[in-house]
Design a protein that fits this description.
heterodimer, A: 144 residues, alpha+beta, 4 strands, 40% helix, B: 273 residues, nine-stranded mixed β-sheet, six-stranded mixed β-sheet, 3 helices, 24% helix, extended
């Protein structure tokens, strides 16, 4: 059998290098685009839903403008929860600038103090028509 | 004896096959990868377009009251952020997509659709019930009618927040009512055809809610059956007609839609490609 010469092996090494360079430099876009888009869409959906409820006067009618603590939180919650499909899980908090209230109106020691899944996003919507503007914290995640 | 130099035929053959194989793998892999990446980039740029167009269309346009004439710049808002004017929507449909695309985005194809997801509890002056699935409202009562001459399957889920709702009369094929802490959910399923062309469900409700939600609506028919709210179209679309274009991306949002006599909430879906 013929012994391979130096240039044969040099050629082989060049060939392997060329293949590695080609495969290592193929264009590859970020794979997390869909995840980012999905989270943006979810946040946009949450914000636009609350804005729509505000625009047609539902949030205004369901809250007590002058004394937020006197709001019927069960009714307010039913409108907000009714706006979302069953494939979106939500949690609601209200923040008046100094402290948070739970979905059903009880005072909380701190905001967002509950167990949240890693894919939960938070949307803030300020109900500016109220005398003391209150911000709604809407925690959302998709479920299947 | 003189040594023979160079390759034998077998070596030459193996080397040639290996070379051609390697080149083929390279071309197929690189070509496939480029195609895949090109599709991803097209999709991503269409998503950016869809999102931008959605924001653009939720502006009033120029002049702000262009629905009385024609727009210089297209936009659907009635001037309040997040509220779409039904008059502008109808005027855009009347002018036609080719006219509108010239004053919006001449180089981008898009299609915009809406589906009402919540409506107020007013009384409808008149209701369209022929060849339609119609929700007709009066005080404390909803009358849901399905009418078709071809086989049509209608599934509708309505939610009455903070209220108690009950089915008063029905000739639907099935319906269920679930009452919970947050309100009452009513599911209706109707099949209409040439021999049974009308199904009707009456729903009564107490502690009248501000709005009633359409949680789900599905109409499957061989004929053009639309969901109507009184005599208003509850689902409509406007834009280029196409069959699954490459890289299509959708942007969804919610907005209020202002009709002459009421404001409803609608899910808007903008597709760009």
């Amino acid at each position: 059998m013929n012994k391979k010469g130096l240039y044969f092996w040099v050629e082989m090494i060049f060939l392997v290098i060329v293949f590695i360079l080609i495969f290592a430099n193929l264009p590859r876009s970020a794979d997390n685009f869909i995840n980012v888009k999905d989270r943006n869409d979810l946040g946009n959906f949450g914000f636009s839903t609350l804005r729509s409820l505000d625009n047609i006067g539902t949030l205004d009618n369901a809250t007590n403008d002058t004394d937020f603590s006197a709001t019927n939180f069960t009714v307010l919650s039913s409108y907000i929860r009714g706006s979302f499909p069953s494939t979106i899980e939500i949690d609601i908090e209200y923040f008046n600038g100094t402290h948070c209230r739970s979905e059903f109106g009880s005072m909380l020691s701190s905001c967002g103090n509950f167990t949240k899944a890693a894919d939960t996003i938070r949307v803030d919507y300020t109900m500016a028509k109220m005398v003391n503007a209150t911000t709604m914290h809407l925690y959302m995640r998709r479920i299947f | 004896m003189i040594n023979k130099r160079g390759q034998t035929w077998i070596e030459f053959l193996i080397a040639t096959v290996a070379f051609l194989g390697a080149i083929s793998i390279l071309f197929v892999t690189v070509g496939g990868q480029f195609r895949e990446e090109s599709d991803k980039v097209t999709f991503q740029s269409n998503c950016i377009k869809a999102s931008s167009l959605e924001n653009f269309f939720l502006q009033p346009g120029e002049p702000e009251d262009w629905e009385t004439d024609s727009p210089d710049i297209f936009g659907l808002s009635n001037g309040t952020p997040g509220v779409v004017s039904n008059a502008k929507w109808l005027k855009a449909k009347e002018l036609g997509f080719p006219s509108i695309i010239n004053v919006s985005t001449p180089s981008t194809s898009w299609k915009l659709g809406y589906s009402i997801s919540a409506f107020e509890t007013i009384t409808d002056a008149s209701c369209t019930t022929k060849n339609a699935v119609s929700i007709c409202r009066s005080s404390g009562l909803l009358n849901v009618t399905a009418n078709s001459t071809q086989t049509t399957r209608t599934s509708l889920v309505l939610f009455f927040p903070s209220s108690t709702a009950a089915i008063d009369a029905s000739d639907a094929d099935s319906n269920t009512t679930t009452t919970g802490l947050n309100g009452t959910e009513v599911s209706i399923f109707m099949i209409t055809n040439s021999s049974d062309n009308t199904d009707r469900v009456n729903i009564t409700f107490t502690s009248s809610p501000d709005i009633i939600f359409i949680k789900q609506s599905s109409i499957s028919s061989g004929q053009n059956i639309t969901l109507m709210l009184g005599n208003k179209t509850a689902q409509d679309s406007f834009g280029a007609l196409t069959i699954k274009p490459r890289g299509l991306c959708s942007a969804k949002t919610r907005a209020a839609i202002a009709f002459d006599d009421e404001v409803a909430i609608a899910d808007f879906n903008l597709q760009a490609w």
